């Protein structure tokens, strides 16, 4: 019974098996080779693990580079807007206008500016993530009660101490929330970007399998793309629990 309870309490395992059951039901109902059975797909997946691993590594590296650059740029800008209300009022209209625009529409622009290689794809992901990061950090700073700053000032805390002990800890939950949203959007956009002028990446792998009408291979790519997203989300959970124990769910 304890083993069953542990398995039931693990949302990842329950979610995965629920997806497999749903997939099998669709396969049986539709009854077409376009949707292969889970058993056929996972059997085929074992035979192409090396090839698909290389494609997965390419996609993961693109996302990691883009996320790292977005954090390095977005966090300081978000903090700056949060602590400088005049600058925030000046730039907020621009942020509110640019944020809802579908960023994938800029892929042709980045290809013209940065070529057809990795740089244009990484720049697209940065363009997607960075505004989410800026707004999340800025809102985190603005949500800090003014009384907290008064307490810091009453103890003659320096600017450096205010950032270290008040602002940075206060915005970390918003940073992780923004990252979760950004990761999902960036993976969807990466799938789109990897369909152009590239020979590796999970997005390229899926579309290549589709053009060959190899639907087991196509679903293998879809599964791996889901696992990549799950990997990033679980990594964020671990980092959040370590760096923001006070905000643990």
TrEMBL record:
ABC transmembrane type-1 domain segment(s): 56-240
Chief location bin: membrane
Topological relation to the membrane, as annotated: Multi-pass membrane protein
Residue intervals passing through the bilayer: 12-30, 60-82, 94-116, 122-142, 163-181, 187-206, 218-236
Protein keywords: Cell membrane, Membrane, Transmembrane, Transmembrane helix, Transport
CDD domains, alphabetized: TM_PBP2
UniProt family annotation: Belongs to the binding-protein-dependent transport system permease family.
Name used for this protein in its record: ABC transporter permease
């Amino acid at each position: 019974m304890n083993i069953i309870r542990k398995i039931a309490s693990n949302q990842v395992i329950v979610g995965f098996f629920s997806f497999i059951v749903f997939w099998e039901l669709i396969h049986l109902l539709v009854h077409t080779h376009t949707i292969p059975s889970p058993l056929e797909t996972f059997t085929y997946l074992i035979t192409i693990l090396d090839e698909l691993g290389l494609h997965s590594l390419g996609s993961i590296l693109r996302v990691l580079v883009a996320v790292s650059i977005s954090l390095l740029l977005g966090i300081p800008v978000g903090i700056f807007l949060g602590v400088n209300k005049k600058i925030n009022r000046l730039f907020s209209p621009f942020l509110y206008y640019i944020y809802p625009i579908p960023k994938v529409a800029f892929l042709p622009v980045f290809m013209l500016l940065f070529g057809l290689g990795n740089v244009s794809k990484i720049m697209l992901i940065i363009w997607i993530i960075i505004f989410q990061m800026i707004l999340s950090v800025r809102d985190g700073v603005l949500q800090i009660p003014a009384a907290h700053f008064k307490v810091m000032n009453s103890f003659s805390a320096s600017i450096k101490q205010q950032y270290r002990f008040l602002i940075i800890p206060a915005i970390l939950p918003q940073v992780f929330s923004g990252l979760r949203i950004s990761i999902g959007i960036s993976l969807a956009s990466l799938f789109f970007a990897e369909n152009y002028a590239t020979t590796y990446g999970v997005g390229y792998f899926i579309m290549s399998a589709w053009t060959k009408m190899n639907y087991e291979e196509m679903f293998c790519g879809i599964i791996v793309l889901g696992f990549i997203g799950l990997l990033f989300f679980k990594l964020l959970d671990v980092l959040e629990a370590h760096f923001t124990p006070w905000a643990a769910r």
